[in-house]
Design brief:
Ribosomal Protein S8, Chain: A, domain 1; five-stranded parallel sheet; 11 strands; alpha/beta
Amino acid sequence: MEEILRRFASGKIDIEEACKELKLEGVRRVKDFARIDVSRQHRTNIPEIIFAEGKSSAEVADIAMALATTKNFALISRSREEDVAELKKHLKDQRVEFEIDYNAVARTIIVKKRGYEFERIGKIGLIAAGTADMPVAEEARVVAEVCGCEVIKAYDVGIAGIHRLVEPLEEIINADVAAIVVVAGMEGALPSVVASLVNVPVIGVPTSVGYGLGGRGVAALLSMLQSCSPGLAVVNIDNGVGAGTFAAKCIYRKK
């Protein structure tokens, strides 16, 4: 982008040519099935995240390598073990050395150039009500860290034993976090409790954990939407990606 603007400023290209090149700079085609938004992080502070569901492992790998070679890293959500295997095949053909970080709990893959480090620009808290909520919480953690967050987490501190929440919540608040992500299934009460105790934005994430009627996250979602605790925002069921990116936005806003 800087090179294009320098050539425009020196008169080597006119404004029409500069506009054309800038548009091409922001989008990169991957074969005949994808157009990746390589400038998204510059515009929004949130990188493009590859959603693996509905794509073949070969498509996931092609898109990931196109992003990683352009931006030094690629983040994949809702991935599978076969995606990892396909990526390893693609890495054999790369001149630059890349490494793969697969989180089986979060179902995320990070592909990055060896030695590349994600910048940390601020802190967020992450709380999960139960162990069964950990996959969604881990998805939120991985995404938030890629977006520049240092994440202080506490898992299995739900309202069935509310006394477990006191110490970790105090630690999170004392760390001067910009926001707190609270992940809960069942009746989804924990985000309302946390929002009533803190002075930072709380992001509620309902999970598809529960019994019978209202299970699969519906009861948790409705409970969070009907919360009487001000300062609580709610994302969709199992949407750790949405929670992690929203928390990162809070950090950039605070900064």
